[in-house]
Amino acid sequence: MKSLIRFNVILKPEPEGGFTVLVPSLPGCITYGKDLEEAKKMSKEAILAYIQSIKKRGDNIPSDDSESFISSVEMTEINV
């Protein structure tokens, strides 16, 4: 039986074009697509491969099924 699992993704536009895709709840799950459509397709493939790896190790599969949201915080320049 297949189940529905939700994952938040961050689509980051790249200066040379295309999008890098990050999956925050799956550390190290990163991929790239030349446009939004391909980036979303590649994110699904990367998530599937990551989940298969987790299942082989017998670990629990994390997800973003609980209500969460992503926000941003603007910072003024900080002198270090």
TrEMBL record:
Listed transmembrane segments: none
Pfam families, per database record: HicB_lk_antitox
Domain HicB-like antitoxin of toxin-antitoxin system span(s) in chain numbering: 8-64
Name recorded for this polypeptide: Antitoxin HicB
